[in-house]
Amino acid sequence: LAKTTQPISMDSYEGQEVNITCSHNNIATNDYITWYQQFPSQGPRFIIQGYKTKVTNEVASLFIPADRKSSTLSLPRVSLSDTAVYYCLVGDPFDMDTGRRALTFGSGTRLQVQP
Amino acid sequence: DAGITQSPRHKVTETGTPVTLRCHQTENHRYMYWYRQDPGHGLRLIHYSYGVKDTDKGEVSDGYSVSRSKTEDFLLTLESATSSQTSVYFCAIRQGEDTEAFFGQGTRLTVV
Fold first, then answer.
1. What domains can be seen in chain B, in order of their start residue?
2. What is residue A44's three-state secondary structure?
């Protein structure tokens, strides 16, 4: 399992672009990079997933450099409703006995957007 | 929204009593997961299932057991609840590895 490192917290103001970087130095060749968002009192929800270069959807963009050792989630023009915890996931723990993969989360980045 | 339902949504129980939480899905997804989340912390994986009758332990499985007798239901049991198991429990489903996971609304369990 590729270990990920992301900032514990970030602050921003409404209308600004927010970039959250995740480091994953030992990412494996087959690993995808996935980001989830969690609002208070709710379960996480999928935001975006990528393998290399850039991926964009209606919510966010994901930038992945050529060496894939890090990735940056970009949220354009944040609003108060983007206040949440953002999780970066890389690959899944692989069980050698069963050949199955779990789905584990780190501590995430707590984004606080202020007026 | 994905068809995933957790029950009950809230429960208060006494120390030493057994408790079973249910996760029900209508998506026919292969994988199902149980997590716990404590205030100010991320999600910690308790157990997961990769098919009917196929389950495995996660990071914090002590004190918990699971069963999956059919595709749509994944049960989490606390055989003898302790105060340290007071938490919010989330269930998740997904079709396969590297696919999007969908989460339930959570169950808030309080052990007094």
1. 4-111 (2.60.40.10)
2. coil
Interface of B with A in 19-78 (CB under 8 A): 31, 33, 35, 41-45, 48, 50, 54, 56, 58-59
Q: B30-47 burial by CB neighbour count: b if 16+ within 10 A, else e?
A: bbbbbbbbeeeebbbbbb
Cβ distance of A42 and B31 shorter than 8 Å: no
Cross-chain residue pair A98–B103, CB shorter than 8 Å? no
pLDDT reading at A17 higher than 70: yes
CA distance, residue A100 to nearest chain B CA (Å): 7
Q: With the CA atoms of A76, A77, A78 and A79 taken in that order, what torsion angle do they form, in degrees rounded to the nearest 10?
A: -150
Nearest chain B CA: its distance from A50 CA (Å): 10
pLDDT grade, residue A1 (50/70/90)? low
For B47, name the nearest residue in chain A, comparing CA atoms only.
A102
The more confidently predicted of residues B42 and B63 is B63
- Cα B67 to Cα A33, A96, B6, B56: the distances in Å are 30, 22, 15, 10
For residue B23, what pLDDT is reported? 98
pLDDT at A90 (0 to 100): 87
Report domain A9-114's class: mainly beta
